[in-house]
Amino acid sequence: MIEINQTLPSHTFNLLTNEGMTTPTTAELFANKKVVLFAVPGAFTPTCSASHLPGFVVHFDALKEKGVDSVICLSVNDAFVMKSWGDSANAENITMLADGDGAFTKALGLGMETGVFGGYRSQRYAMLVENQTVTQLWLEEPKAFTVSSAESVLANI
């Protein structure tokens, strides 16, 4: 599992924007930036849709005031699902990043097998990444939602 003071693994993502499909790299998303990355087990799932993503939408400006350059939501879903979910949640300020095959999540060591629920998914977490290096990591216990909430992240950066 990735740890504090480690550099994020190199990866190329799929990101669907209003302008079309893009393929940003880890370097493009995180180099020379202070980024809050939070990951969810699945788009449109109950806790993710009712609390996790909406918290970051609501607290986006407060995070910016603390020097955060961008907020990224990551899930092992495809780019079309992530775009649709972001649109439905009015998350225009959040980068809705797809880890379609889970390769980035696996490289981080932060995945889990959920069986018939959905197969391989991300664990729920948030991290602060500064210039591609993890400076803080808040990993949730299974089925919990406390330390990775926007409110908790905001209080701890």
Commentary on this structure:
The chain is of the alpha/beta class and 157 residues long. The protein has a single domain, classed as Glutaredoxin. The chain is built from six helices and nine strands, in the order ββαβααβαβαββββα. It has a five-stranded mixed sheet. The protein has a two-stranded antiparallel ribbon with strand order 1-2. The chain is globular. The two termini are 22 Å apart. The relative contact order is 0.23. It catalyses: a hydroperoxide + 2 glutathione = an alcohol + glutathione disulfide + H2O. Keywords: Antioxidant, Oxidoreductase, Peroxidase, Redox-active center. One of its GO terms (biological process) is cellular response to oxidative stress.
Average pLDDT confidence is 95
Which class in CATH terms?
Alpha Beta
- Tell me the name of the CATH homologous superfamily: Glutaredoxin
Major sheet: order of its strands? Answer: 5-4-3-8-9
Q: Uncertain runs with pLDDT below 50, 5 residues or more?
A: none
Run of helices and strands: EEHEHHEHEHEEEEH
GO molecular function: thioredoxin peroxidase activity
Family: Belongs to the peroxiredoxin family. Prx5 subfamily.
Organism: Pseudoalteromonas piratica
Catalytic activity: a hydroperoxide + 2 glutathione = an alcohol + glutathione disulfide + H2O
Quickly describe the structure:
The chain is α/β, with parallel strands linked by helices. The chain contains 6 helices and 9 strands. The strands form 3 sheets. A 5-stranded mixed β-sheet has the order 5-4-3-8-9. A two-stranded antiparallel sheet has the order 1-2. The protein has a two-stranded antiparallel ribbon with strand order 6-7.
